[in-house]
Amino acid sequence: MKKIGLLLVIAGALVVAACAPTATPTPKAVEPTPTEVQPTPEAELNFVLVQHALCAWDSFWCTVEQGITDAAEDMGVKVTVLGPDAFDLERTAALIDQAVAANPDGIALTVTDPVLFKEPITRAINAGIPVIAYNAGSGPVKDGIPY
Q1: E runs forming strands in 22-142
Q2: Cα separation, 70 vs 122, whole angstroms
Q3: pLDDT digits (tens, 9 = 90+) for 2-50
Q4: 125 closest CA partner among 4, 32, 16, 2
Q5: Could you tell me the CA-to-CA distances from 114 to 1, 100, 128, 131, 133 in Å, in that order?
Q6: d(CA 114, CA 121)
């Protein structure tokens, strides 16, 4: 349960950082409240993010990927961003399976096609890997996937 909470906190920070204007100064670190989940200092957390597009061919994702990288550095976690070389949802589904095989502490992804992505996302959840969605998807209830 702590893993899910931590993944939600980190993913939320990654998405917020990705959407923040670059001219906005970075806020000063705030001491965590006792209810916030804190990673154990001796274990680096590893997250895999799977997107249907990458900065290399869609400039929107440059901002997203920079925010992910900045937030990961600020939070002291390792992130790997995966995406297809061109818009290819079949390849993106395969990348979700690749992320599951890496057994990360959590997976964040874009649910561009809930029908196609349902099985690989379900495999991640069944493997005990917390999964959250960002930027795409209609939500767990409408998508029919308990991410």
Answers
A1: 46-50, 78-82, 106-109, 131-133
A2: 29
A3: 555 555 545 555 554 454 544 444 545 555 555 555 555 577 999 999 9
A4: 4
A5: 24, 17, 20, 14, 11
A6: 9
d(CA 8, CA 47) in angstroms, rounded, equals: 11
R_g (Cα) of the chain, nearest Å: 15
Residue owning tokens 């809930």: 114
Which backbone phi and psi does 122 adopt, to 5 degrees? Answer: -65, -40
Tokens of 61: 């994702």
- pTM score, whole prediction: 0.73
In the chain the first and final C-alpha atoms are separated, in Å, by 14
